[in-house]
Specification:
alpha+beta, globular, Multidrug-efflux Transporter 1 Regulator Bmrr, Chain A, about 15% helix, 9 strands, nine-stranded antiparallel sheet
Length: about 150
């Protein structure tokens, strides 16, 4: 089973409310203007980083608006967390957070992302979370996250 960040479900339904423990993520900022292009490039960079450092792939791949533009593409670090920046990859630490979560299938593209984000509270900082290999074509699990308190 793939390692995922630990959380507790506080409310369930079409939208779940989860409380995530503090977590560490390998992160690259991709200064591209489209979600689709940023995800492809960020995944490429981070996957190469994992291979070079002999780290295991974990889930999900998290994508959110970058603090200074573009998109932050992040792989959950779990037990492989490090403190040093290497080859443009840095650690991003998320505090304990409450997150609204909407699950959906298929591939996350700019179009599907926009249609799913409408289910989240207005104004929430958002992220997309993808749990499957890009080579898996059916039975995919994705989520959009709306951070309640970050």
């Amino acid at each position: 089973m793939v390692e995922v960040p630990p959380y507790t479900v506080l409310a369930s339904g079409d939208i779940e409310l989860r409380q995530y423990a503090p977590s560490a993520w390998f992160c690259v900022n991709v200064p591209l203007v489209t979600y689709d292009a940023a995800v492809r490039r960020g995944f490429e960079l981070l996957f190469r980083f994992l291979q070079q450092n002999d780290f295991d792939m974990k889930a999900p791949v998290l994508v959110m608006p970058g603090r200074h533009g573009g998109f932050d593409v992040m792989f959950y670090a779990g037990s492989d967390a490090a403190s040093d920046e290497t080859a443009g990859v840095h650690m991003r630490r998320l505090p304990k957070v409450l997150v609204y979560v909407k699950s959906f299938g298929g591939f996350t593209t700019n179009k599907t992302l926009l249609s799913q984000l409408r289910h989240l509270p207005n104004g929430a900082l958002w992220a997309s979370a993808s749990y499957n290999s890009p080579f898996r074509l059916v039975g995919r699990h994705n989520e959009v996250w709306g951070f309640k308190d970050i």
